Amino acid sequence: MCGIVGINSSKPVTGVILNSLKKLEYRGYDSAGVATLKDGFINETKCEGRVENLENIITKNKNDGPIGIGHVRWATHGQPSEVNAHPHSSEKVSVVHNGIIENSTLLKKHLIRAGHVFKSQTDTEVITHLITEYLKKHDLKTSILKMLKRLHGSFALGIIFKDFPDIIVGARRGSPLAVGYGPNENYLGSDSYALKTMTNKVSYLDDGEFCLIHKNQVEFFNSEGEKVNKEVLEVSSDDQNYDKGNFKHFMAKEIYEQPNTIKSCLKEYIDKINKDINIINFPWNSKEIESIKLIGCGTAYHSCLIAKYWIEQFTDIEVETDIASEFRYRKNKFKSSQLYIFVSQSGETADTYAALDLCIKNKMKTCSIVNVVESSIARDSGYVLPIHCGPEVGVASTKAFLGQLLVLYLLTLKISFLRNEISKDGYSTKIDNLLELPKLIENTLKIESEMQEASKDFSKAKGSMFLGRGYSFPIALEGALKLKELAYVHAEGYPAGEMKHGPLALIENGMPVVVIAPRDEFYKKTVSNMQEVISRGGKVLLISNKSTDEVSSENLWKKIEVETISDDLFPFLMTIPLQLLAYYAANSLGYDIDKPRNLAKSVTVE
Ligand code: F6R
Question: What is the pLDDT, as a whole number, of residue 235?
Answer without folding.
Answer: 78
